[in-house]
Amino acid sequence: MRAGAACRAGRPNTGEASEGVGSEIFRELARMVATLAEVQGLRSFALPYPGLAQRALDRTVMHCLDVGETPPRSLPELWEWCRTRPAGDPLFAVPASLVTPDATLVHQVGRMPTRSCLEVASHGPDGGVAAHAHALLGELEARCGTDERYRQCRRFLARHPVVHQRDRFGLGWSKTVWSRVKDLYGPLPESLLVDGVFLGCPSCRLPALSRDGTVPVPGLSATDADIWCEGEECPRDAPPELIREPDQARILRRSLRTFLALPHRTEEAALDALDRAGIDHEALSGPLSAYRLRDTGPEIVDIQVYDRLQPALLAAHLTDSAPPADRTLVVVPCALAGRNCYREAFADALPALLRERLVLTTPVDLVPDLNGPG
């Protein structure tokens, strides 16, 4: 295809072997940002710095000295680098075949870890943030005892990244489910409050923040107020939802917000497409948004649902996890799959032997791709 050729022409085939010290430091900084954001937010740091932060700062300083760059003088300054210096900065020189060159680790507006940061932090043998989400869901599955109980709890978590005391009197609230999942929620951190108010994105239901640190004025469009949300890709055609009693609210662990709640809309859209087409499916045991299709003949066909900004890292994750099916349809949001070079970057990052077995698709294209050549 011409588009694919153009994408490959614009993206050097560097491969893993070309990853250097800068790439390793970028990954270490991603893990530092992800970890420290959970501990104390991104707004202030006091000496002595936590061990992982000091190590990341020391490595960055040494790398700067080696390449003739003025090093950061403190952790706050290093944090600013994570907000303004992208993966393609010569200091990091992360291969474009691995991470998009414009990806930063701290969001310009929200000053929180970016989705790309969490995906980079999940790349590697230990699985990072994504592995933490999978471990939490694995423990939940063991506590539930049956697949049905687990699916009920998993669905509750995905649909309710933030809960409020008043929700207990609303529809769909189950005391039994809450008793099993409540330990996966915690208090709203001060770093996510704006003038003592919590802002929630009306699209993804995840936390939001304003650029100027004030509560948006009623009637002012979300675009004018310059709102960031953890989903990052949501439309800004509606104002954020406000929780004015944040002490009465609880928020889902960040790893689960990112790797369970965020892709849930795509998961529901994919299942709706299968149901409309009369294609039977069953949920697979485990933490993934994964389903096995029935009546596919001798071929074993699965679908797995993701919402990842970095296609090459998604391909690397799937390569490491080695899907057992003969064919796996990897469902991502339409907006991502339609992004320039996303499909090509995903395919290029797969080993040749997996390119026929792993098919990138969307909820809209799922059924046509399923019925296409296997």
Mean pLDDT: 87
Tally of domains: 3
Shape: globular
Poorly predicted tracts of residues: 1-5, 12-18
User: What is the percentage of strand-forming residues?
Assistant: 5-15%
Report the count of strand segments.
Answer: 13
What is the H/E order?
HHHHHHHEHEEEEHEEEHHEEEHEHHEH
Distance between the termini: 19 Å
Instruction: Determine the number of helices (DSSP H or I, runs of at least 4 residues).
Output: 15
Instruction: Return Rg in Å.
Output: 21 Å
Q: Specify the biggest β-sheet.
A: 5 strands, antiparallel
Helix coverage percent: 40-55%
Structural class: alpha+beta
Structural descriptors:
41% helix, 15 helices, 3 domains, 5-stranded mixed beta sheet, 13 strands, alpha+beta, Trna Endonuclease, Chain: A, domain 1, 13% strand, globular, 5-stranded antiparallel beta sheet, disordered N terminus, 374 residues
